[in-house]
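User: Okay, second chain of the day. Same drill as before: sequence in, structure tokens out.
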Amino acid sequence: MDIRRVVVGPIRDNCYILSLPDRTDCVLIDPGANPERIRPAMEGRHPAAILLTHGHFDHIGAVKELAERDTEIVIHRLDAPMLGDMELNACWMAGLDVTAPPATRLVEEGDTLEYAGLRFTVLHTPGHTAGSVCYDTGDTLFTGDTVMAQGVGRTDLPTGSDEDMEASLRRLMPLLRQRHVCGGHG
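Assistant: Same drill. Structure tokens below.
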């Protein structure tokens, strides 16, 4: 699996582009802004799916521009309302107006996803938001803002919870030692 990281937006979020050699499709994880920077890194590939680790503005901002007619937009059901609600997705923090199209697939703990020849298992890791998830490929874990280079995501925004974050981190500890971790920032 080829993993390309594109740093986007005012908060310098990590957008990941995942693909396999000789395929014309790819998977995007958290395209938060700057579609004009993400699209060239896709190298002409079609986005089969956009996987969102949570619904904050800085992770959803380029979905509208990058999703094609048959691109699956994936998010946990608890964060789905954030896609169209600027108060919930916290775009007011940056003085922006950000929304994304509605999800085409809502996921839950343990769901298995297959797009662009790649397989992911959904791990529900609430704390940063009620519907935060990690996507596990077996050797790489995409953690969004649950775990980042600078630490863990804040819990003081809508639907965040210190208690849930602590439980999620305890649960993830063994995997963090076994997987390559790709966080939402840093």
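The radius of gyration is 15 Å.

User: Thanks, on to the next one.
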